[in-house]
Write a structure and sequence with these properties.
The strands form 3 sheets. An 8-stranded mixed β-sheet has the order 5-4-1-6-7-10-9-8, with helices on both faces. The protein contains 19 helices and 12 strands.
Length: 450
Amino acid sequence: MAFNIIFAEFNGWRRIMIKINSISAIKEKIINEAFINNHRSKPDDFTRNRTLTFQAVFIQIFRKTVKSLQLSLNETFMSGYLPNPVSASAYTQARSKFKHTAFIELNNDIVRLFYSEDNAIKKWNNYRCIGVDGSKIILPKSTEIADEFGSISIKNQTVHSSFSCAMFECYYDVLNQMVIHSMFAHGLSYEAELATQMLGATMEHDLLILDRAYASYEFIATLIEQGKNYLIRCPYSSFKEVSLLTRDTKNWSKIVTLKVPSKQKKNIVGKGLPLEIKVRLVSVILSTGEVEILATSIMDKSIERKEFKWLYGVRWGVETFFSIVKGRLCLENFTGKTPESVKQDFWSTIFISNLETVMTQGTENEMNANLQQGQYAKKVNTSVSFNTIKNMAFELFVDDNDAESTVEKMTILFKMNPSLDRIGREGPKRKKTSDLQSYNFQKRVKKHVF
């Protein structure tokens, strides 16, 4: 018992140090001349003594708000973090000097720090579980954006128009709520192709968990050729062997040989991939009684059928993540109409999502330390946590405060108004929302984070 208490205290101290080190690293970088040089548009940008410094622009983008830009700038001035009031036009000019790559570098730093203590993260059978998925992001309408991300036509009896969107491809650690790697690509990009390009970001003991959109011979063959671990849900029509296993009442697991479809043979040969691959197929039974087939590289026969079902189920974490960035963080409410401003908003959203994971790590353990039998476990309310981080941005990255006391203050706020983790509860079936209902929700019901 004493050993467990000491170990828990040690882990708690380690998490606090990761939080403090993350804050310190960001604070030091955004005023570092070399960092600024690497992430400004032109060599002479941010060299004069201006009100909107590189640091000020960074935090303004980071704090992205649904309020009008001028109101946000006025509030920053009234809080004492800008020496003079500035116009929205002046800020727009200043942010054009700032490159979105600053957020990419800082995000990579956060991810590296988070995984620096390998024993402190959650795993399944020593695997880091990576949910892989893509999501369309609707972009502002402008010629520049259409040129870079493409344009999709809308044509019916009453409408003849077009819109632009980007494809957001994500590798997401579903057990630790951390974005490992992501791409912000052309709107007509193929999800499996983007996922293939991102394979270099994975490690030896990563398990990629993917939905049926990725169940192609080429993608699975690529994973096998590169020695990647995977679990993929297969449509019944994807392979003959999959269809056969759905009707097999004696076996729930089979190792099969998949042969390249004749129409794909030339492409597969051209890419140097094998013409035959061995995979394990596993059937799982959903709560509805429906049988689903999973293709996997996991050959361990001691793993039970229900565990495979659970393992695929945790992939839903990446869907929840998309819901958070689009809902809580209002990703599609972009603050500019240029490709660069869109990229700034996107990468700053990824950055704050990962930072929130780092800063809230261990908080739920503290909230549930004295949980009584029959009580629901508590979860950090993301509306509260994101609001806290955005409101305390200047305190985190500008003020000369003691980082440990700042972390303690934030943790107190993270514990306010928690959500309840009602495991096993099924919500109502999804139904189509009318335009009027959606409008009412956005205008009168939805609670914005910032």
